[in-house]
Specification:
heterodimer; A: 219 residues; mainly alpha; elongated; B: 213 residues; alpha/beta; six-stranded mixed beta sheet; three-stranded antiparallel beta sheet
Protein backbone atom coordinates (compact mmCIF):
# COMPACT_ATOMS: atom_id res chain seq x y z
CA UNK A 1 0.00 0.00 0.00
CA UNK A 2 2.93 2.32 0.76
CA UNK A 3 4.20 1.55 -2.73
CA UNK A 4 0.88 2.68 -4.26
CA UNK A 5 1.01 5.91 -2.25
CA UNK A 6 4.58 6.65 -3.34
CA UNK A 7 3.88 5.76 -6.96
CA UNK A 8 0.87 8.07 -7.16
CA UNK A 9 2.86 10.83 -5.51
CA UNK A 10 5.70 10.36 -8.00
CA UNK A 11 3.28 10.35 -10.92
CA UNK A 12 1.76 13.63 -9.86
CA UNK A 13 5.20 15.23 -9.57
CA UNK A 14 6.35 14.09 -13.01
CA UNK A 15 5.58 15.96 -16.20
CA UNK A 16 1.86 16.08 -16.87
CA UNK A 17 1.02 14.88 -13.38
CA UNK A 18 -0.69 18.11 -12.52
CA UNK A 19 0.24 18.45 -8.84
CA UNK A 20 1.00 22.15 -9.24
CA UNK A 21 -1.88 22.94 -11.59
CA UNK A 22 -4.24 23.12 -8.62
CA UNK A 23 -2.02 25.56 -6.70
CA UNK A 24 -1.56 27.74 -9.78
CA UNK A 25 -5.31 27.84 -10.32
CA UNK A 26 -5.85 28.65 -6.63
CA UNK A 27 -3.35 31.51 -6.83
CA UNK A 28 -4.92 32.83 -10.03
CA UNK A 29 -8.42 32.89 -8.59
CA UNK A 30 -7.42 34.56 -5.32
CA UNK A 31 -4.96 36.98 -6.92
CA UNK A 32 -7.55 38.50 -9.27
CA UNK A 33 -10.08 39.17 -6.52
CA UNK A 34 -8.32 42.30 -5.11
CA UNK A 35 -8.21 43.75 -8.62
CA UNK A 36 -11.91 43.16 -9.09
CA UNK A 37 -13.03 44.30 -5.65
CA UNK A 38 -10.76 47.33 -5.48
CA UNK A 39 -8.38 48.60 -2.80
CA UNK A 40 -10.91 48.54 0.05
CA UNK A 41 -8.76 46.81 2.67
CA UNK A 42 -11.57 46.29 5.16
CA UNK A 43 -13.79 44.66 2.58
CA UNK A 44 -10.91 42.44 1.42
CA UNK A 45 -10.13 41.20 4.91
CA UNK A 46 -13.82 40.60 5.50
CA UNK A 47 -14.33 38.41 2.42
CA UNK A 48 -10.82 36.88 2.63
CA UNK A 49 -11.62 33.51 4.28
CA UNK A 50 -14.58 32.95 1.96
CA UNK A 51 -12.53 33.72 -1.16
CA UNK A 52 -9.71 31.43 -0.01
CA UNK A 53 -12.20 28.64 0.60
CA UNK A 54 -13.93 29.07 -2.76
CA UNK A 55 -10.56 29.09 -4.52
CA UNK A 56 -9.43 25.97 -2.65
CA UNK A 57 -12.71 24.16 -3.37
CA UNK A 58 -12.53 24.83 -7.10
CA UNK A 59 -8.83 24.01 -7.22
CA UNK A 60 -9.34 20.67 -5.50
CA UNK A 61 -12.11 19.74 -7.94
CA UNK A 62 -9.65 20.34 -10.78
CA UNK A 63 -7.91 17.15 -11.81
CA UNK A 64 -10.09 14.88 -9.71
CA UNK A 65 -11.55 13.24 -12.82
CA UNK A 66 -8.12 11.82 -13.72
CA UNK A 67 -7.92 9.92 -10.43
CA UNK A 68 -9.17 6.65 -11.94
CA UNK A 69 -9.42 7.53 -15.61
CA UNK A 70 -5.64 7.58 -16.07
CA UNK A 71 -5.45 4.14 -14.45
CA UNK A 72 -8.21 2.82 -16.66
CA UNK A 73 -6.67 4.08 -19.90
CA UNK A 74 -3.41 2.19 -19.47
CA UNK A 75 -5.02 -0.95 -18.03
CA UNK A 76 -3.69 -0.54 -14.48
CA UNK A 77 -7.22 -0.38 -13.11
CA UNK A 78 -7.89 -3.94 -14.33
CA UNK A 79 -5.01 -5.24 -12.25
CA UNK A 80 -6.06 -3.22 -9.21
CA UNK A 81 -9.56 -4.71 -9.44
CA UNK A 82 -8.15 -8.23 -9.46
CA UNK A 83 -6.03 -8.12 -6.33
CA UNK A 84 -6.64 -9.68 -2.96
CA UNK A 85 -6.22 -6.24 -1.40
CA UNK A 86 -9.71 -4.84 -0.81
CA UNK A 87 -10.54 -2.29 -3.47
CA UNK A 88 -11.79 0.11 -0.78
CA UNK A 89 -8.31 0.24 0.67
CA UNK A 90 -6.73 0.84 -2.73
CA UNK A 91 -9.14 3.73 -3.35
CA UNK A 92 -8.47 5.19 0.11
CA UNK A 93 -4.72 5.16 -0.47
CA UNK A 94 -5.15 6.72 -3.90
CA UNK A 95 -7.27 9.48 -2.33
CA UNK A 96 -4.66 10.14 0.34
CA UNK A 97 -1.90 10.34 -2.27
CA UNK A 98 -4.03 12.64 -4.41
CA UNK A 99 -4.70 14.91 -1.46
CA UNK A 100 -1.03 15.00 -0.47
CA UNK A 101 -0.09 15.99 -4.01
CA UNK A 102 -2.85 18.50 -4.71
CA UNK A 103 -4.61 19.41 -1.44
CA UNK A 104 -1.66 19.92 0.87
CA UNK A 105 0.02 22.49 -1.45
CA UNK A 106 -3.21 24.52 -1.29
CA UNK A 107 -3.04 24.58 2.50
CA UNK A 108 0.60 25.64 2.35
CA UNK A 109 -0.09 28.36 -0.21
CA UNK A 110 -3.05 29.74 1.77
CA UNK A 111 -1.08 32.04 4.16
CA UNK A 112 0.62 33.82 1.25
CA UNK A 113 -2.70 34.40 -0.46
CA UNK A 114 -4.18 35.47 2.87
CA UNK A 115 -1.76 38.42 2.78
CA UNK A 116 -3.18 39.39 -0.61
CA UNK A 117 -6.57 39.60 1.06
CA UNK A 118 -5.30 41.72 3.99
CA UNK A 119 -6.28 39.04 6.50
CA UNK A 120 -5.09 39.13 10.12
CA UNK A 121 -2.74 36.46 11.50
CA UNK A 122 -5.58 34.82 13.41
CA UNK A 123 -7.80 34.71 10.34
CA UNK A 124 -4.98 33.26 8.24
CA UNK A 125 -4.23 30.61 10.85
CA UNK A 126 -7.89 29.67 11.22
CA UNK A 127 -8.38 29.45 7.45
CA UNK A 128 -5.29 27.29 7.10
CA UNK A 129 -6.51 24.96 9.84
CA UNK A 130 -9.99 24.63 8.33
CA UNK A 131 -8.48 23.99 4.89
CA UNK A 132 -6.23 21.33 6.39
CA UNK A 133 -9.10 19.38 7.92
CA UNK A 134 -11.68 20.21 5.24
CA UNK A 135 -9.99 19.64 1.86
CA UNK A 136 -9.53 15.85 2.37
CA UNK A 137 -13.33 15.58 2.46
CA UNK A 138 -13.51 17.15 -1.02
CA UNK A 139 -11.05 14.55 -2.31
CA UNK A 140 -13.04 11.67 -0.79
CA UNK A 141 -16.31 12.98 -2.21
CA UNK A 142 -14.61 13.62 -5.54
CA UNK A 143 -13.31 10.05 -5.70
CA UNK A 144 -16.89 8.84 -5.85
CA UNK A 145 -17.68 11.20 -8.69
CA UNK A 146 -14.49 10.21 -10.49
CA UNK A 147 -15.37 6.52 -10.14
CA UNK A 148 -18.89 7.05 -11.47
CA UNK A 149 -17.60 8.95 -14.50
CA UNK A 150 -14.56 6.72 -15.08
CA UNK A 151 -15.78 5.40 -18.42
CA UNK A 152 -16.76 8.80 -19.81
CA UNK A 153 -14.04 10.29 -21.99
CA UNK A 154 -14.95 13.90 -21.14
CA UNK A 155 -16.03 13.39 -17.56
CA UNK A 156 -14.13 16.34 -16.08
CA UNK A 157 -16.91 18.90 -15.76
CA UNK A 158 -19.45 16.20 -15.00
CA UNK A 159 -17.42 15.07 -12.00
CA UNK A 160 -17.29 18.62 -10.65
CA UNK A 161 -21.04 19.05 -11.03
CA UNK A 162 -21.79 15.67 -9.45
CA UNK A 163 -19.53 16.43 -6.55
CA UNK A 164 -20.33 20.06 -5.87
CA UNK A 165 -23.64 19.61 -3.98
CA UNK A 166 -21.99 17.17 -1.60
CA UNK A 167 -19.05 19.52 -1.10
CA UNK A 168 -21.26 22.46 -0.10
CA UNK A 169 -21.49 21.45 3.60
CA UNK A 170 -17.70 21.34 3.71
CA UNK A 171 -17.59 24.89 2.35
CA UNK A 172 -20.25 26.16 4.77
CA UNK A 173 -18.62 24.78 7.91
CA UNK A 174 -15.10 25.58 6.74
CA UNK A 175 -15.93 29.22 6.13
CA UNK A 176 -18.04 29.61 9.27
CA UNK A 177 -15.25 28.19 11.44
CA UNK A 178 -12.74 30.53 9.82
CA UNK A 179 -15.02 33.52 10.46
CA UNK A 180 -15.73 32.45 14.02
CA UNK A 181 -12.04 32.78 14.83
CA UNK A 182 -12.08 36.51 14.11
CA UNK A 183 -15.66 37.54 14.92
CA UNK A 184 -16.05 37.51 18.65
CA UNK A 185 -19.49 36.16 19.61
CA UNK A 186 -19.43 33.24 17.20
CA UNK A 187 -17.96 30.02 18.65
CA UNK A 188 -14.99 28.54 16.74
CA UNK A 189 -14.92 24.97 17.98
CA UNK A 190 -18.39 23.62 17.01
CA UNK A 191 -18.15 24.33 13.27
CA UNK A 192 -14.55 23.05 13.25
CA UNK A 193 -15.60 19.81 14.93
CA UNK A 194 -18.46 19.37 12.48
CA UNK A 195 -16.00 19.93 9.64
CA UNK A 196 -13.74 17.21 11.06
CA UNK A 197 -16.76 14.93 11.42
CA UNK A 198 -17.70 15.53 7.77
CA UNK A 199 -14.17 14.63 6.67
CA UNK A 200 -14.15 11.43 8.73
CA UNK A 201 -17.61 10.52 7.47
CA UNK A 202 -16.59 10.89 3.84
CA UNK A 203 -13.29 9.10 4.47
CA UNK A 204 -15.44 6.02 5.08
CA UNK A 205 -18.34 6.56 2.66
CA UNK A 206 -16.33 7.99 -0.26
CA UNK A 207 -13.92 5.08 -0.90
CA UNK A 208 -16.73 2.58 -0.29
CA UNK A 209 -18.98 4.20 -2.89
CA UNK A 210 -16.09 4.67 -5.30
CA UNK A 211 -15.10 1.00 -5.01
CA UNK A 212 -18.68 -0.07 -5.73
CA UNK A 213 -18.86 2.23 -8.74
CA UNK A 214 -15.54 0.96 -10.10
CA UNK A 215 -16.62 -2.65 -9.78
CA UNK A 216 -19.83 -2.10 -11.68
CA UNK A 217 -18.21 0.11 -14.32
CA UNK A 218 -15.87 -2.62 -15.50
CA UNK A 219 -16.18 -3.47 -19.18
CA UNK B 1 -1.18 -29.42 -4.53
CA UNK B 2 -1.71 -28.82 -8.25
CA UNK B 3 -4.54 -26.47 -9.04
CA UNK B 4 -7.18 -26.77 -11.71
CA UNK B 5 -9.13 -24.09 -13.50
CA UNK B 6 -12.68 -25.31 -13.97
CA UNK B 7 -15.20 -23.44 -16.10
CA UNK B 8 -18.78 -24.61 -16.30
CA UNK B 9 -21.58 -23.41 -18.54
CA UNK B 10 -20.14 -19.95 -18.95
CA UNK B 11 -22.01 -17.33 -20.96
CA UNK B 12 -21.48 -13.60 -21.25
CA UNK B 13 -23.25 -10.61 -22.73
CA UNK B 14 -21.98 -7.40 -24.21
CA UNK B 15 -24.85 -4.96 -24.01
CA UNK B 16 -27.92 -6.94 -25.01
CA UNK B 17 -26.20 -9.51 -27.19
CA UNK B 18 -25.04 -12.86 -25.99
CA UNK B 19 -21.40 -13.15 -27.11
CA UNK B 20 -21.02 -16.83 -26.23
CA UNK B 21 -22.88 -19.32 -24.15
CA UNK B 22 -22.37 -22.58 -22.34
CA UNK B 23 -18.60 -22.87 -22.53
CA UNK B 24 -17.15 -25.52 -20.24
CA UNK B 25 -13.57 -26.68 -19.88
CA UNK B 26 -11.02 -27.78 -17.35
CA UNK B 27 -7.38 -26.75 -17.48
CA UNK B 28 -5.13 -28.69 -15.14
CA UNK B 29 -1.77 -27.61 -13.77
CA UNK B 30 0.90 -27.62 -16.46
CA UNK B 31 -1.60 -27.22 -19.29
CA UNK B 32 -2.16 -24.41 -21.72
CA UNK B 33 -5.38 -23.49 -23.44
CA UNK B 34 -5.28 -21.41 -26.60
CA UNK B 35 -8.44 -19.50 -27.46
CA UNK B 36 -8.77 -18.87 -31.19
CA UNK B 37 -11.44 -17.49 -33.45
CA UNK B 38 -12.22 -14.63 -35.80
CA UNK B 39 -12.33 -11.00 -34.63
CA UNK B 40 -15.39 -10.32 -32.54
CA UNK B 41 -15.95 -13.95 -31.63
CA UNK B 42 -15.62 -13.20 -27.93
CA UNK B 43 -12.05 -14.21 -27.10
CA UNK B 44 -11.27 -11.09 -25.10
CA UNK B 45 -14.67 -11.18 -23.42
CA UNK B 46 -14.05 -14.76 -22.32
CA UNK B 47 -10.66 -13.84 -20.88
CA UNK B 48 -12.08 -10.82 -19.05
CA UNK B 49 -14.78 -13.03 -17.54
CA UNK B 50 -12.10 -15.49 -16.42
CA UNK B 51 -10.13 -12.62 -14.87
CA UNK B 52 -13.22 -11.49 -12.98
CA UNK B 53 -13.36 -8.15 -14.79
CA UNK B 54 -16.71 -8.87 -16.39
CA UNK B 55 -19.56 -10.64 -14.70
CA UNK B 56 -20.74 -13.78 -16.42
CA UNK B 57 -24.35 -14.02 -17.49
CA UNK B 58 -24.41 -17.58 -16.18
CA UNK B 59 -21.96 -20.28 -15.24
CA UNK B 60 -19.00 -20.42 -12.90
CA UNK B 61 -15.24 -20.06 -12.90
CA UNK B 62 -13.55 -22.03 -10.13
CA UNK B 63 -10.11 -22.95 -8.93
CA UNK B 64 -10.03 -26.53 -7.66
CA UNK B 65 -7.56 -28.03 -5.24
CA UNK B 66 -5.89 -24.80 -4.36
CA UNK B 67 -4.07 -24.35 -1.08
CA UNK B 68 -4.50 -20.61 -1.17
CA UNK B 69 -7.31 -19.08 0.82
CA UNK B 70 -8.96 -16.90 -1.79
CA UNK B 71 -12.32 -15.24 -2.04
CA UNK B 72 -12.36 -15.12 -5.83
CA UNK B 73 -10.43 -17.04 -8.53
CA UNK B 74 -9.17 -13.77 -10.06
CA UNK B 75 -6.78 -13.39 -7.14
CA UNK B 76 -4.72 -16.28 -8.49
CA UNK B 77 -4.53 -14.82 -12.00
CA UNK B 78 -2.25 -12.58 -13.95
CA UNK B 79 -4.07 -10.69 -16.66
CA UNK B 80 -2.10 -9.29 -19.56
CA UNK B 81 -4.60 -7.40 -21.68
CA UNK B 82 -4.23 -5.22 -24.76
CA UNK B 83 -3.01 -2.40 -22.58
CA UNK B 84 0.25 -2.75 -20.75
CA UNK B 85 -0.71 -1.35 -17.33
CA UNK B 86 2.56 0.54 -17.12
CA UNK B 87 2.97 4.29 -16.58
CA UNK B 88 4.80 6.14 -19.33
CA UNK B 89 6.10 8.79 -16.92
CA UNK B 90 7.80 6.31 -14.58
CA UNK B 91 10.92 4.34 -15.35
CA UNK B 92 10.62 0.65 -16.10
CA UNK B 93 12.18 -0.13 -12.76
CA UNK B 94 9.71 2.04 -10.84
CA UNK B 95 6.81 0.45 -12.72
CA UNK B 96 7.94 -3.10 -12.06
CA UNK B 97 8.88 -2.59 -8.43
CA UNK B 98 5.49 -1.00 -7.82
CA UNK B 99 3.62 -3.96 -9.29
CA UNK B 100 5.88 -6.40 -7.48
CA UNK B 101 5.14 -4.95 -4.07
CA UNK B 102 1.49 -4.06 -4.83
CA UNK B 103 0.55 -7.47 -6.17
CA UNK B 104 2.63 -9.64 -3.88
CA UNK B 105 2.92 -13.38 -4.45
CA UNK B 106 0.19 -15.98 -4.41
CA UNK B 107 0.70 -18.94 -2.14
CA UNK B 108 2.90 -21.65 -3.61
CA UNK B 109 5.56 -19.59 -5.35
CA UNK B 110 7.53 -16.40 -5.39
CA UNK B 111 8.32 -13.83 -8.04
CA UNK B 112 11.85 -13.30 -9.28
CA UNK B 113 13.86 -10.11 -8.94
CA UNK B 114 13.52 -7.13 -11.25
CA UNK B 115 16.96 -7.54 -12.83
CA UNK B 116 16.39 -11.21 -13.44
CA UNK B 117 12.96 -10.57 -14.98
CA UNK B 118 14.19 -7.96 -17.43
CA UNK B 119 17.13 -10.23 -18.33
CA UNK B 120 14.71 -13.07 -18.96
CA UNK B 121 12.93 -10.90 -21.53
CA UNK B 122 16.22 -9.86 -23.10
CA UNK B 123 15.96 -6.23 -22.02
CA UNK B 124 18.45 -6.09 -19.17
CA UNK B 125 20.24 -2.78 -18.74
CA UNK B 126 17.50 -0.43 -19.95
CA UNK B 127 15.27 -0.55 -16.88
CA UNK B 128 16.40 2.94 -15.83
CA UNK B 129 14.63 4.49 -18.85
CA UNK B 130 11.13 5.94 -18.64
CA UNK B 131 8.64 3.40 -19.94
CA UNK B 132 7.39 5.90 -22.53
CA UNK B 133 10.83 5.98 -24.24
CA UNK B 134 10.67 2.32 -25.23
CA UNK B 135 9.42 1.02 -28.57
CA UNK B 136 6.07 -0.77 -28.79
CA UNK B 137 7.70 -4.20 -28.77
CA UNK B 138 9.96 -3.34 -25.85
CA UNK B 139 6.99 -1.96 -23.92
CA UNK B 140 5.12 -5.20 -24.49
CA UNK B 141 8.06 -7.25 -23.26
CA UNK B 142 8.44 -5.09 -20.17
CA UNK B 143 4.74 -5.58 -19.46
CA UNK B 144 5.42 -9.32 -19.65
CA UNK B 145 8.10 -8.92 -16.99
CA UNK B 146 5.17 -8.25 -14.63
CA UNK B 147 4.21 -11.91 -15.03
CA UNK B 148 7.57 -12.89 -13.58
CA UNK B 149 8.09 -10.41 -10.75
CA UNK B 150 4.85 -11.36 -8.96
CA UNK B 151 3.92 -15.03 -8.78
CA UNK B 152 0.47 -16.12 -9.92
CA UNK B 153 -0.28 -19.73 -10.90
CA UNK B 154 -2.66 -18.75 -13.70
CA UNK B 155 -1.69 -16.49 -16.60
CA UNK B 156 -4.49 -15.02 -18.70
CA UNK B 157 -2.98 -13.52 -21.83
CA UNK B 158 -4.84 -11.53 -24.45
CA UNK B 159 -2.88 -11.45 -27.72
CA UNK B 160 0.40 -11.47 -25.82
CA UNK B 161 2.71 -11.50 -28.82
CA UNK B 162 1.00 -8.87 -30.98
CA UNK B 163 3.90 -6.39 -31.28
CA UNK B 164 6.78 -8.84 -30.93
CA UNK B 165 9.45 -9.91 -33.43
CA UNK B 166 10.21 -13.56 -34.12
CA UNK B 167 13.06 -13.80 -31.59
CA UNK B 168 10.97 -12.27 -28.80
CA UNK B 169 8.18 -14.63 -29.78
CA UNK B 170 10.42 -17.61 -29.12
CA UNK B 171 11.68 -16.08 -25.90
CA UNK B 172 8.12 -15.68 -24.69
CA UNK B 173 7.30 -19.26 -25.70
CA UNK B 174 10.22 -20.28 -23.48
CA UNK B 175 8.79 -18.34 -20.54
CA UNK B 176 5.37 -19.91 -21.01
CA UNK B 177 7.00 -23.34 -21.24
CA UNK B 178 8.83 -22.76 -17.97
CA UNK B 179 5.68 -21.52 -16.24
CA UNK B 180 3.81 -24.64 -17.38
CA UNK B 181 6.70 -26.83 -16.30
CA UNK B 182 6.43 -25.37 -12.81
CA UNK B 183 2.78 -26.41 -12.59
CA UNK B 184 1.23 -23.18 -13.86
CA UNK B 185 -1.78 -22.68 -16.11
CA UNK B 186 -1.89 -20.50 -19.20
CA UNK B 187 -5.01 -19.37 -21.03
CA UNK B 188 -4.17 -17.25 -24.05
CA UNK B 189 -6.14 -15.68 -26.88
CA UNK B 190 -3.99 -15.47 -29.95
CA UNK B 191 -3.94 -15.49 -33.73
CA UNK B 192 -0.37 -16.76 -34.02
CA UNK B 193 0.66 -20.12 -32.62
CA UNK B 194 2.14 -19.67 -29.17
CA UNK B 195 4.94 -22.15 -29.74
CA UNK B 196 3.97 -24.51 -26.94
CA UNK B 197 1.88 -27.66 -26.90
CA UNK B 198 -1.65 -26.60 -26.02
CA UNK B 199 -5.26 -27.50 -26.38
CA UNK B 200 -7.37 -25.19 -28.45
CA UNK B 201 -10.73 -23.60 -27.74
CA UNK B 202 -12.21 -22.42 -31.01
CA UNK B 203 -14.72 -19.62 -30.59
CA UNK B 204 -17.24 -19.57 -33.39
CA UNK B 205 -18.77 -16.22 -32.61
CA UNK B 206 -22.21 -14.76 -32.02
CA UNK B 207 -23.88 -17.04 -29.56
CA UNK B 208 -22.09 -19.98 -31.09
CA UNK B 209 -20.78 -22.59 -28.72
CA UNK B 210 -17.02 -22.82 -28.45
CA UNK B 211 -15.60 -26.28 -28.84
CA UNK B 212 -12.51 -27.63 -27.17
CA UNK B 213 -10.41 -29.45 -29.76
Amino acid sequence: MISLFLRDLKLSMRAGGGALIGVLFFMTVVAVVPFAVGPDLNLLSRIGPAILWIGALLASLLGLDRLFQAEREDGSLDLMLMQETPLVLTVLVKCLAHWTATGLPLVIAAPLLGLFMNMSEVAIGATMLTLLVGTPAITFIGATGAAVAVTLPRGGLLVSILVLPLAIPVLIFGVSAAYAAVQDPAPFLPPLLILIAITLFFAVIGPLAAALALRSASD
Amino acid sequence: MPIRLRVEGLSAKRGEDLIFHDISFIVAAGEALIVTGPNGSGKSTLLRVLAGLLTAESGTVRMDDTVADISHPRELCHYLGHRNAMKHELTVEENLSFWKSFMGDSAGGSGIGLEEATEALGLGGISHLPFGYLSAGQQRRMAMAKLLVAYRPVWILDEPTAALDAAADRMFAGLVERHLGAGGIVVAATHQPLGVAARELRMTGFAGVGEVV
